[in-house]
Amino acid sequence: MDIATRDEGDWLLVQPAGEIDIATADAVESHLAANRDTILDLTQVTFMDSTGLRTVVGAHNRLKEANHRLRIVIPDGPVERILSITGLTGALDTVGTLEDAISSG
User: Which residue range(s) make up the domain with 93?
Assistant: First the structure.
């Protein structure tokens, strides 16, 4: 798993690539630990198991409690499917493209 991070305006952009599962979730979680508005771009994620879901929901809850936002980029595909099946797309701040995440402030 590779994880790129960069500032994107007022946002921290976190872009993992590969699979988010029990073997990689801790690395993703450590990149989501910043106490600021964060965009999690899942465009290059090919698979996510329940550990990955827990990581995303945990980061969302932690940032929300600190009055920050977690915006999640999930294009159509396997990751969007698992978030949709579990009902999380309605509970999380999700968009289809990175451009939408950045432009929607």
Answer: 2-103
